[in-house]
Amino acid sequence: MKLGVLGFLPRSFGDLRIEQIREVCELGFRGTGLPTGDDPTSVSSTRAREIGQMFRDAGVELVEYGRYSTNLVSPDAAVRRQNVASLREAFRVARAAGCPAVITGAGSLDPRGAWLPHPDNNTEKTRERLITSLREASKAAEDQGVILGLECHTVTALSNAQTTRAVLDAVGSPALKVHLDPVNWLTWETVYRSGEATSRMFETLGPERLLGAHSKGVTVEPRLIIHISESVTGADDDIFDHAALLREAAKMSRDFYVVIEHLKPEQMPAARAHLLKIAEQIGVQFD
């Protein structure tokens, strides 16, 4: 397995400089993602190839191209078509840059955001729309020779490992996999047993359906109503069982990435050190 990080580089292709990419390597990370702030239609294939060469020259691997605000479940067919078309452009950019995967979420029926809850996000009709969209998007990914990775969450149609496996199997594309973020699937029943929960996620999905994993911390806030929140990997309030994630990741292929995310640049060295310390304690290692 390999260790990567997201969030260190600028969000725009136009702001990216090779010196910044080299800093990712200097921090001790093998890989990172393409900038996510631009509409992929605005990025020419020529520019994407130039960016990919910058990463290669800097000695940093491209892991993913995040398109996290995609909505594949809207009741409006025109909206779904527009979002699939955007993914198609992202596949083009990823292929030109030499990036192996584009990451998308399912989206939400809440018009305020793709990661917000809605009472109909987990209905059968919503999942049917998602499957239809993913079939079209996965075929486009196959045509470009890249992977479409799913970022999942309890509040979306990809609400748990069992449901997500069923969706992948219904789509039936070798280009469709899960970029696992265990924290996104934790509930009140599992947050204090995150290691067991993470192992079950890996077991349920199986290695053939897994692309990589995101790493972040989790905390339970001491408030009257239950609040489960993200934390910094390795912070004092982080109760996530990172050892369980690393044990499972070490069973995957050597190209399987554990990617730290949602941190400020100044927090990244400590998070990296935390994971390396745990890896040493449990007898696994990063390539």
Keywords:
287 residues, alpha/beta, TIM Barrel, 8-stranded parallel β-sheet, two-stranded antiparallel sheet, 8 helices
Verbal overview:
The chain is of the alpha/beta class and 287 residues long. It has one domain (2-282): Alpha-Beta Barrel (TIM Barrel). The protein has eight helices and ten strands. α1 (18-26) packs parallel to α2 and α7 packs across α8. The model has no long low-confidence stretch (mean pLDDT 97).
Short account of what is shown:
By secondary structure, the protein is an alpha/beta fold.
CATH topology: TIM Barrel
Q: What ranges have pLDDT less than 50 throughout 5 or more consecutive residues?
A: none
> Which structural class is indicated by helix and strand composition?
alpha/beta
C-alpha Rg, in Å?
18 Å
Number-wise, the strands total 10
Tell me the domain tally. Answer: 1
Approximate strand percentage: 15-25%
**Quick one: CATH superfamily?**
Divalent-metal-dependent TIM barrel enzymes
Which strand order spans the largest sheet, edge to edge or round the barrel? Answer: 1-10-7-6-5-4-3-2
Q: What integer is the average pLDDT?
A: 97
Spatial separation of the terminal alpha carbons: 6 Å
Largest beta-sheet details: 8 strands, parallel
Report the helical percentage.
25-40%
